[in-house]
């Protein structure tokens, strides 16, 4: 069976910033928008997008500003806030899909934080989020909490002072992050309930009470960065949404380890991808092909 080739798009955020995106097209009017994790390029989610497309669902993936094909020539001096990825960039992808049909969201880590920051989150029919938590090192098991503490208090400050951005790639931890992302992320990860504990983030957190959609909040029971306690600490901020917490064990998906990035990798994804579409199908998504 063949499918239409992905469409490479240039979307414009609300402030005019140009964003690289991909639309995996079908002839339906149902869309899944993929809400990426922090610093993860959209290509990482290609397997999931192709799987959903093969079952008759449009999928839109996007590179946030400063990441992947939406990064400037240099991140040094690049001015942005962490919230821009949610309020402006992901919002542009949701708006693109909403102009063409119904929209569901599948999120990874930051993707779970972003729902409550969208200008109109209730345009979504439902959301399925993997690996989203409060980010506080105290929720993490030893020795991961000590490694994360070291990153925030030693490696991060030294690296950002030298480079003018957070050199995550030099630490073997993904793409480099703009300075504004690093500063906001560090501040919020120092708090047990993330930005809900930050009095300076009221403009962000006050919108979470408006979210009234069903959300599946899925974490691996052994996710070092977002274990169940971290997930629960964050999602209690969605005071009016219907939250379904799901804990996965590696044995549930036939692997030895899931990890924070494993939800969308090949082996785990073979089991999890159909589960995601099945859950979304219980909330209105029609699977056109099997």
Explained architecture:
The chain is α/β, with parallel strands linked by helices and 290 residues long. The chain has a single domain (7-134, 204-281), classed as Alpha/Beta hydrolase fold, catalytic domain (Rossmann fold), CATH 3.40.50.1820. Helix content is 30%, strand content 18%. The protein contains eight helices and eight strands. The protein has helices at 46-54, 84-98, 110-114, 144-163, 179-189, 202-205, 228-235, 266-281, and strands at 7-12, 18-24, 30-35, 58-62, 102-108, 124-130, 214-220, 242-248. Strand 3 (30-35), helix 1 and strand 4 (58-62) form a beta-alpha-beta unit. The model has no long low-confidence stretch (mean pLDDT 94).
Contiguous runs where pLDDT drops below 50 for at least 5 residues: none
Strand content is 15-25%
The assigned CATH architecture is: 3-Layer(aba) Sandwich
Q: Biggest sheet, strands in spatial order?
A: 1-2-4-3-5-6-7-8
* Tally of structural domains: 1
Tally of DSSP β-strands: 8
Derived structural class? alpha/beta
**Cα-based radius of gyration, to the nearest Å:** 18 Å
Largest sheet: 8 strands, mixed
Overall shape: globular
CATH superfamily: Alpha/Beta hydrolase fold, catalytic domain
* Terminal Cα span: 11 Å
CATH class: Alpha Beta
What is the CATH T-level topology? Rossmann fold
């Amino acid at each position: 069976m063949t499918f239409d080739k992905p469409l490479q798009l240039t979307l414009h955020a609300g402030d005019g910033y140009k964003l690289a995106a991909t639309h995996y097209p079908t002839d339906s009017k149902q869309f899944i928008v993929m809400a990426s994790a922090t610093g993860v390029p959209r290509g990482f989610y290609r397997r999931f997008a192709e799987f959903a497309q093969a079952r008759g669902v449009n999928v839109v993936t996007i590179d946030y500003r400063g990441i992947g094909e939406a990064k400037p020539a240099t991140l040094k001096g690049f001015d942005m806030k962490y919230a821009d990825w949610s309020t402006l960039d992901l919002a542009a992808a949701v708006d693109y899909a909403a102009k063409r049909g119904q929209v569901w969201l599948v999120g990874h880590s930051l993707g779970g934080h972003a729902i409550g920051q969208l200008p109109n989150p209730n345009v979504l029919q439902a959301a399925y989020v993997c690996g989203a938590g409060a980010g506080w090192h105290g929720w993490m098991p030893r020795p991961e909490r000590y490694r994360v503490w070291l990153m925030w208090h030693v490696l991060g400050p030294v690296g950002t002072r030298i480079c003018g951005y957070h050199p995550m790639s030099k630490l073997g931890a993904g793409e480099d992050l703009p300075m504004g992302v690093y500063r906001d992320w560090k501040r919020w990860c120092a708090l047990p309930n993330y930005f809900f504990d930050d009095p300076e983030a009221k403009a962000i957190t006050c919108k979470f009470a408006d979210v009234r959609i069903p959300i599946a909040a899925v974490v691996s029971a052994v996710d070092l960065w977002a274990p169940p306690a971290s997930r629960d600490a964050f999602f209690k901020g969605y005071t009016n949404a219907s939250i379904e917490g799901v804990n996965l064990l590696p044995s549930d998906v036939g692997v030895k380890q899931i990890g924070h990035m494993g939800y969308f990798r090949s082996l785990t994804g073979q089991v999890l991808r159909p589960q995601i579409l099945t859950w979304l199908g219980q909330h209105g998504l029609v699977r056109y092909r099997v």
